[in-house]
Amino acid sequence: MPLDAFTVHSHCADLGGVARTHELAAAGVDPYSLRLAVRDGVLVRLREGVYATAETSEAVRAAVRHGGVLGCLSRVAAAGLWILVEPAAVHVAMPRTGRRRGHDGCDCVVHWAPAVGRGGTASLVDALAQVLGCRGEEEFFVALESAMRKRLVRRGALARLRARIPAGRRWLVDFARWDADSGLESLLRLRLRPNGIALASQVEIPGVGRVDFVLGDRLILEVDGKPNHIGPSKRHKDLVRDVVAAAHGFDSLRFDYALVGHDWPIVEAAILAKVERGLHLDRRVAGRPR
Ligand SMILES: [Zn+2]
Ligand SMILES: [Zn+2]
């Protein structure tokens, strides 16, 4: 009696969604049942001897067809982590013993890895280490804090990651926090680090409401450009917030995502000009009306 398609599918799903014929055989899936499952559309054959559940993403399919697994920024994006620049191509982690296989529409970015994970995706630790080498410190740090925030990495994984990356960049792991609220916060904290400026996010200020960031004691930094910020009354509301904040002894700077992303030097200069004048520090208790 062949296995029904549902059973074959669940065996493949248990193996991570992508499995080799011998792994499926070890789970009790005989070749005939496998063929039926492919015919019924619950499994797809990605390449010789490798099968995937029908819901496997196009990115994972491409990585496996290429001869590897989903890695680097593509793996990070698939996990729903914060990223600064979306990957335009599929990033593939290839085992050193592997060989590239031709497939339709291949523009894959390849990372050679000592070993690759099961189920068609690299481990998150491997993927994060690949991001550091591929996209640099900022993309790595933002993804790392996102993984920590979602508790997709634990202390053991962090220690493995720290050991994996070059010694000169391990401070990035030490500097990362478990409670970042957004990728923007991670990016700002990383960029402001050389200046030694403390940054708090999502701060509730009496009379003003919740602001994006407070630098030091009393310099409010608001970053516009989020979809829910757009509206005809936005300008007036912003002015009210700034005026009320000023009345409470705060100083405000307002930027948008494009400025932070593409014109950081001018944003940094504006912040530092305030900081140099001590406008981010206050001897009075911040937030108390005069
Ligand atoms: Zn490819
Ligand atoms: Zn990459």
The SSE string, one letter per element, is HEHHEEHEHEEHHHHHEEEHEHH
State Rg.
24 Å
- Can you list the strand order of the major beta sheet? 7-8-9-10
Shape: elongated
Structure summary, number of beta strands: 10
Number of domains: 3
Q: Number of helical runs?
A: 13
Distance between the termini: 82 Å
Unreliable runs: 285-290
Which ligands accompany this protein?
Answer: zinc ion
How much of the polypeptide forms β-strand, as a percent range?
A: 15-25%
Q: Label the structural class.
A: alpha+beta
Helix proportion of residues, in percent?
A: 40-55%
Protein name: DUF559 domain-containing protein
Pfam family, one: DUF559
InterPro entries: AbiEi_N, DUF559
